[in-house]
Design goal:
Layout (H helix, E strand, L loop, with lengths): L1 H11 L3 H8 L5 H6 L9 H10 L13 H7 L17 H7 L7 E2 L6 E2 L8
Antiparallel strand pairs: 1-2
Length: 122
């Protein structure tokens, strides 16, 4: 990825000083990040800044399994054990499970039962 960023820098004929200015980095930071043997690494924030300064975007990332490494690592992979999760229960189901009855309200106008208003879940 750094090689692509360096090529874009060269295609635009930008100096490291200009990149420092465009990204808001301290003077000399671009040189530390973009040198052949970088002294600093690009983190998520600095990567976003330099991509923006060079008008670049990430279009696609593809992960593929390396069969050779997978063969070496397979014996070290320990599957995680998770407890069986019960499905989430609604407030009405919880009340019924406790032996409580849900309350319905009637309107005086037309004597029609309507369910009570429940507080929002959150």
């Amino acid at each position: 990825m750094l090689d692509l960023i360096r090529r874009r820098r060269d295609a635009l004929s930008l100096t490291h000083e200009t990149i420092d200015h465009l990204t808001g980095w301290a003077s000399g930071y671009a040189s530390k990040v973009l040198s052949p043997e970088p002294l600093k690494r690009l983190g998520p924030q600095s990567l976003g800044l330099i991509l923006g300064a060079l008008a670049l975007g990430i279009a696609r990332i593809e992960f593929v399994e390396d069969p050779e490494i997978a063969a070496r690592m397979r014996s070290r992979w320990v599957p995680r054990l998770r407890p069986k999760m019960r499905p989430r229960r609604t407030r009405g189901a919880l009340l019924n499970a406790r032996g409580q009855k849900t309350v319905t309200a009637t309107t005086e106008d037309n004597n029609v039962e309507t369910p009570p208003e429940l507080p929002p879940e959150g």
